[in-house]
């Protein structure tokens, strides 16, 4: 079974995919994915300090074995801290335990571990979807032992009085990380016999979690998990450390070969075209899931993978607007449309947030200035005027950063905003500002404001900020929210916001200049020459014109990198190159300032592109070789690192089959609701059977009972058909498993 997973947080982070084990089904691979949804609720009765101040500043970490993957905020001055934080993550590797450590935060010294809860992988199912109080266990060096050892000891057939020599291979793996770093392991082997006892110790292997060692005089072959050493030390009383309340949900998905999901995948991908959209499979998924987030996550990723997210969000947003009566409540609820858009912005806009907000958030968190302005929360000696000035400085800096970032806004987000603007203007034709307020409610209220108040959630900061910084971020976030609601804005700020929104919504011209380009084809005499053309850069494409109509266009999403070109390439100054899917486009600006302006603008507008290059050729390919590195093949990989490098975290890696498997699981779990919804459609008077009381199906949105009924029949038939191979594989897996096998 493969276990390839990425790690995310619910309120997300990608890890390298790892192969765990493999299984076969019908000659094809079956993939196993594990994922965890957990609520770290609260702790109680923690051990107090021995001094007069008995309170502690506590936080909790979530660990796969001993590797920390998340941590909660710090709760100050409490022995019964309430955390109330929910985490969602996918398992990126094998593990033995899911562990939770309670720490006492220390300013000057190392944080003190109060106790831990460790749940073995095989026991996670016992606690799934149950709130459980766990007694904290003591933490010491012995309790932290983890890993596996494989010993192979060979025995000769003849044993002499002096003993015979044979090899023993010691192979260790899965050793824990210590403070995020590889450990320095060694092994000891003891030989105990009637005549003598002997012990050997290996050399220390620096910075590793796996190693091989050779011994001699060996007897047997076995494999086992490393266990704590019995040293006779008395452990702490577990009932003295306190308790931790958790709600853990661990699930595994068995992903079959791609062909098994064709019918369900095709039905889901047709959703944007179904009329009405409430009769589509994707919309029905949101209707039957108790928590819409369960449906939204795999649905958005699947639609993104197949370039269907924009038409689907447009369709469900239009349905939302039918029930919206007031302009000031537009897109304010937690509907399928708003949840899908929120999730899409988190995935697609992750790098956009990083290049926009991270620098200013780093400044706020690393060099915080006091910004408290609430009279009740002010401390003695605080100067409220200084605090106001500090807050004004931070707000202006965040505001300026946001309104100047339109050129970095991902094209996919711009496309969705354009659709929302059109729908809002159509729904409220008499309101000239609704086309902007509809977009600002998402951009400011549901995107930037949320990222500012919780930067760790969007991976803009490694951990929760401290209490004072968190309060500052909250005050800044509240100000950002007023930008989305158009409340009490100055004229200058309103103009800046409108300009920003227009640049995001429309295909607005960013740059327009007359420059020279090198011909990409050959002239009649066989040489490529330079021609003067008008160049136009928008948020969606780069075009050049001879007259009014464009001669050629390059979609921004296709640009791989933009770099300067060495003067020696064509004996011309102020040249740069735009590298995209075909041959490079060589452009000569009129001066160095213009060249720099175009390079910067092109880099900014394409910085969130996928598959950007990490290396390039700083010169040209002429007369059969690259002038820079002398390589003789035109498609030779670049020889110089790109100046901007590759934004490694902007790649959107989505496994469509895995997301479809999740959706199948949700449909299978909610089969009774599907059947009830099918019955509700059949009970509507104009379709079939007597009409039932409204309460029997009032929780479902059924605009067209015939179309909805037909889709439900298709979903149920597909799920029942997929149940067969899943059940067959589970039986095969359980019957073939042997105790002690790999």
TrEMBL record:
<keyword id="KW-0343">GTPase activation</keyword>
<dbReference type="InterPro" id="IPR001562">
    <property type="entry name" value="Znf_Btk_motif"/>
</dbReference>
<protein>
    <submittedName>
        <fullName>RAS p21 protein activator 2</fullName>
    </submittedName>
</protein>
<dbReference type="Pfam" id="PF00779">
    <property type="entry name" value="BTK"/>
</dbReference>
<dbReference type="Pfam" id="PF00169">
    <property type="entry name" value="PH"/>
</dbReference>
<dbReference type="InterPro" id="IPR001936">
    <property type="entry name" value="RasGAP_dom"/>
</dbReference>
<dbReference type="InterPro" id="IPR039360">
    <property type="entry name" value="Ras_GTPase"/>
</dbReference>
<dbReference type="InterPro" id="IPR001849">
    <property type="entry name" value="PH_domain"/>
</dbReference>
<dbReference type="InterPro" id="IPR011993">
    <property type="entry name" value="PH-like_dom_sf"/>
</dbReference>
<dbReference type="InterPro" id="IPR000008">
    <property type="entry name" value="C2_dom"/>
</dbReference>
<dbReference type="GO" id="GO:0008270">
    <property type="term" value="F:zinc ion binding"/>
</dbReference>
<feature type="domain" description="C2">
    <location>
        <begin position="145"/>
        <end position="277"/>
    </location>
</feature>
<keyword id="KW-0863">Zinc-finger</keyword>
<dbReference type="InterPro" id="IPR035892">
    <property type="entry name" value="C2_domain_sf"/>
</dbReference>
<feature type="domain" description="PH">
    <location>
        <begin position="508"/>
        <end position="607"/>
    </location>
</feature>
<keyword id="KW-0479">Metal-binding</keyword>
<dbReference type="Pfam" id="PF00168">
    <property type="entry name" value="C2"/>
</dbReference>
<keyword id="KW-0677">Repeat</keyword>
<keyword id="KW-0862">Zinc</keyword>
<dbReference type="Pfam" id="PF00616">
    <property type="entry name" value="RasGAP"/>
</dbReference>
<dbReference type="GO" id="GO:0035556">
    <property type="term" value="P:intracellular signal transduction"/>
</dbReference>
<dbReference type="InterPro" id="IPR008936">
    <property type="entry name" value="Rho_GTPase_activation_prot"/>
</dbReference>
<dbReference type="InterPro" id="IPR023152">
    <property type="entry name" value="RasGAP_CS"/>
</dbReference>
<feature type="domain" description="Ras-GAP">
    <location>
        <begin position="291"/>
        <end position="485"/>
    </location>
</feature>
<dbReference type="GO" id="GO:0005096">
    <property type="term" value="F:GTPase activator activity"/>
</dbReference>
<feature type="domain" description="C2">
    <location>
        <begin position="15"/>
        <end position="134"/>
    </location>
</feature>
């Amino acid at each position: 079974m493969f276990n390839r997973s990425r790690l995310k947080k619910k309120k997300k982070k990608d890890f390298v995919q790892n192969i765990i084990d493999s299984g076969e089904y019908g000659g094809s691979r079956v993939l196993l994915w594990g994922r965890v949804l957990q609520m770290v609720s609260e702790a109680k009765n923690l051990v107090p300090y021995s001094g007069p101040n008995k309170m502690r500043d506590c936080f909790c970490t979530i660990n796969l074995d001993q590797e920390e993957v998340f941590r909660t905020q710090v709760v100050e001055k409490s022995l019964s801290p309430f955390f109330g934080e929910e985490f969602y993550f996918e398992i990126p590797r094998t593990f033995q335990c899911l562990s939770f450590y309670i720490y006492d935060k220390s300013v000057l010294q190392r944080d003190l571990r109060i106790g831990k809860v460790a749940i073995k992988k095989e026991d996670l199912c016992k606690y799934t979807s149950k709130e459980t109080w766990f007694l904290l266990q003591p933490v010491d060096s012995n309790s932290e032992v983890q890993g596996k050892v494989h010993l192979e000891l060979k025995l000769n057939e003849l044993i002499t009085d002096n003993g015979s020599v044979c090899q023993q291979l010691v192979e260790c793996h899965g050793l824990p990380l210590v403070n995020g770093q590889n450990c320095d392991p060694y092994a000891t082997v003891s030989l105990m016999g009637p005549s003598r006892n002997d012990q050997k110790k290996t050399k220390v292997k620096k910075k590793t979690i796996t190693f091989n060692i050779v011994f001699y005089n060996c007897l047997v072959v076995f494999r086992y998990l490393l266990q704590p050493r019995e040293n006779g030390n008395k452990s702490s009383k577990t009932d003295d450390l306190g308790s931790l309340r958790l709600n853990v949900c661990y699930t595994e998905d068995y992903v079959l070969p791609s062909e098994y999901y064709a019918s369900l995948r095709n039905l889901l991908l047709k959703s944007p075209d179904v009329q009405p959209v409430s009769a589509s499979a994707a919309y029905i998924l949101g209707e039957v899931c108790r928590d819409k987030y369960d449906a939204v996550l795999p649905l958005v990723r699947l639609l993104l993978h197949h370039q269907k997210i924009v038409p689907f969000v447009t369709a469900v947003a239009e349905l939302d607007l039918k029930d919206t009566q007031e302009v000031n409540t537009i897109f304010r609820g937690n509907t399928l449309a708003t949840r899908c858009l929120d999730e899409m912005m988190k995935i697609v806009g992750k790098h956009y947030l990083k290049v926009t907000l991270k620098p200013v958030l780093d400044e706020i968190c690393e060099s915080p200035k006091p910004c408290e302005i609430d009279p009740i929360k002010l401390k003695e000696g605080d100067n409220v005027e200084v605090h106001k000035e500090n807050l004004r400085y931070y707000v202006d800096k965040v505001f300026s950063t946001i309104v100047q970032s339109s050129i970095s806004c991902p094209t996919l987000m711009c496309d969705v905003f354009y659709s929302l603007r059109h729908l809002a203007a159509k729904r409220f034709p008499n309101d000239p500002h609704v086309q902007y307020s509809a977009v600002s409610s998402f951009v400011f209220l549901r995107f930037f404001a949320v990222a500012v108040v919780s930067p760790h959630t969007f991976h803009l900061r490694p951990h929760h900020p401290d209490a004072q910084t968190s309060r500052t971020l909250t005050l800044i976030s509240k100000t950002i929210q007023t930008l989305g609601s158009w409340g009490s804005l100055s004229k200058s700020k309103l103009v800046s916001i409108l300009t920003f929104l227009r640049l995001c919504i429309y295909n607005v011209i960013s740059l327009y200049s007359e420059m020279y380009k090198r011909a990409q084809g050959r002239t009649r005499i066989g040489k490529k020459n330079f021609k003067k053309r008008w160049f136009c850069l928008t948020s969606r494409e780069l075009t050049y014109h001879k007259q009014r109509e464009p001669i050629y266009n390059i979609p921004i999403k296709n640009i791989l990198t933009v770099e300067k070109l060495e003067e020696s390439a064509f004996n011309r100054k102020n040249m740069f190159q735009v590298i995209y899917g075909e041959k490079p486009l060589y452009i000569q600006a009129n001066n160095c300032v213009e060249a720099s302006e175009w390079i910067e603008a092109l880099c900014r507008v394409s910085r969130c592109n996928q598959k950007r290059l990490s290396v390039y050729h700083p010169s040209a390919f002429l007369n059969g070789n690259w002038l820079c590195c002398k390589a003789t093949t035109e498609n030779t990989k670049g020889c110089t690192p790109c100046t901007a490098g590759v934004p490694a975290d902007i790649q959107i890696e989505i496994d469509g089959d895995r997301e479809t498997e999740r959706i199948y699981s949700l449909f299978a779990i909610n089969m009774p609701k599907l059947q009830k919804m099918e019955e509700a459609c059949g009970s509507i008077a104009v379709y079939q059977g007597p009409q039932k009381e409204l309460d029997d199906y009032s929780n479902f949105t059924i605009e067209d009972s015939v179309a909805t009924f037909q889709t439900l029949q298709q979903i149920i038939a597909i799920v029942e058909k997929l149940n067969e191979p899943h059940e067959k594989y589970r039986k095969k897996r359980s019957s073939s498993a042997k105790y002690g096998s790999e």
